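Entry 14. Structure prediction run on the chain below.
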Amino acid sequence: MRMATTPPAQAVKPGDSFSQDVTFDARSIAEFAELTGDRNPVHTDPQAGASSRFGKRIASGQHVVSLMLGLAATWMTQRGTSFGLGCSFRFTAGVREGDAIVLRWTVTETIFKESLRGMIVVLEGDATNDAGLVCCRGRLEMLLQS
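Output returned:
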């Protein structure tokens, strides 16, 4: 088990922010949909995507959310032992084939919780395309222990 050298209260503070750039290409969209059993044709069939209101194949919501959660989990585990406590997401636009997306999280609150022997870290995040359109917004609560 990896132990952090910095106490959680010093490792994470409100205002901390981190991001990752991701491009959703045709292959990754189709492979993720297949892997997760999402058979919606707007994810797997280029013609269905082209005839949809999006004009192209789109990534599944769970694809975007999985990458956002993975980014947060990686960032948190670099600061100590962490566990997800809960999350919610809202989709506001489709992530279209070829879109370059910035996944971003910001720490909005930290609460030390003695009974959990750690700090609850609240994060708010979004996935924004290169035109500045927010495609997904999320809120995540994680437990961070040293």
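The domain at 8-24+60-145 is CATH 3.10.129.10 (Thiol Ester Dehydrase; Chain A).
Filed with the rest of this week's runs.
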